[in-house]
Design a protein that fits this description.
By secondary structure, the protein is mostly helical. The chain contains 14 helices and no strands. Helix 4 packs across helix 8, helix 4 packs antiparallel against helix 11 and helix 8 runs antiparallel to helix 11. The C terminus is likely disordered.
């Protein structure tokens, strides 16, 4: 019989377990509250002590969220806007960051480190510092109230370039040299060898880029005035501006808005979770 390993009590392990449980609690409880409140009547949500189980279930909140308190049914259009903007930002960020990261990782040219440091320096500048200059540029180009205005500042991510570059630095040069000896061009090497082997980091970058734009409130608030061009965060925030806030419908709108993120994460979770492990194994 094999020896059973007995783990001794350690204050460090107890602290780690406590922190993980606390993180789990503060992550899951707000989500549970959102879905629970989305099925309650307004007076039931505000009642104390709070009842976590809706009695009775009140699915009308979801109809009200889709319809809107003004009866405009603008929610589906706003949902489409967010899906389009977030998808475009994720796809372009992955494409441009992977190409740039590959060039910075595998090609030696004068000024390479300087270019990389300048890209990294942009990460130190908060968006609030460049928000108004970006708005003035958008106004000068007359791209307000348009998909171009919503997506243009976020087509490429400096963090994505950093992420791809760090991942590709550890990519074996032997594979690339063998492909060059066989006569394959650089475009073919990137498309057939490099890109297919970057699935974990691509999935990670795609999820983070999509989520960043899905949650983006500040930029659409500046550049969009038309109700039909607004995104989901603007739609949800509109509930808080009304004199008689419908908390149930607001929670229902938030619950519906969270569904695409859940689908994206769970469909790519095996790559997203495995990405850090693959990166660490390559480093070792």
């Amino acid at each position: 019989m094999g020896h059973q390993v007995q783990r001794k009590f350690s204050p460090v392990n107890a602290l780690i377990a406590f922190l993980l449980l606390a993180l789990f609690f503060f992550t899951v409880v707000p989500l549970f509250f959102m879905f629970s409140a989305s099925l309650m009547q307004k007076n039931q949500i505000l009642r104390m002590p709070y009842s976590w189980i809706p009695r009775p279930f009140y699915p009308h909140n979801y109809y009200q969220a889709l319809r809107g308190n003004d009866g405009s049914w603008i929610f589906p259009r706003n949902m489409f806007n967010s899906l389009l903007v977030s998808s475009v930002a994720a796809l372009t960020s992955v494409a441009l960051a992977s190409i740039t990261g590959y060039g910075l990782a595998k090609f030696r040219f004068k000024g390479r480190n300087f270019v990389f440091m300048m890209i990294m320096a942009t990460m130190m500048i908060p968006f609030e510092a460049i928000m108004m200059p970006l708005y003035m540029v958008a106004r000068g180009l007359r791209i307000q109230n348009s998909y171009v205005g919503l997506t243009l500042p976020f087509l490429v991510s400096a963090f994505g370039v950093f992420q791809m570059r760090q991942y590709l630095v550890t990519f074996p040069n032997e594979y690339l040299d063998a492909a060059r000896v066989d006569g394959m061009g650089e475009a073919g090497i990137f498309r057939k060898i490099v890109f297919p082997n970057c699935t974990p980091v691509i999935a990670t970058l795609g999820i983070l880029s999509f989520r960043s734009q899905w949650d983006n409130l500040l930029w659409p608030l500046l550049v969009i005035q038309s109700e039909r061009m607004k995104t989901i965060p603007l739609y949800i925030s509109k509930f808080t501006e009304e004199k008689m806030t419908d908390e149930g419908a607001m929670m229902a709108a938030a619950a519906i808005a969270s569904i695409p993120m859940f689908i994206l994460f769970f469909s790519l979770s095996k790559y997203f979770i495995g990405g850090s492990a693959v990166y660490e194994s390559r480093k070792g």
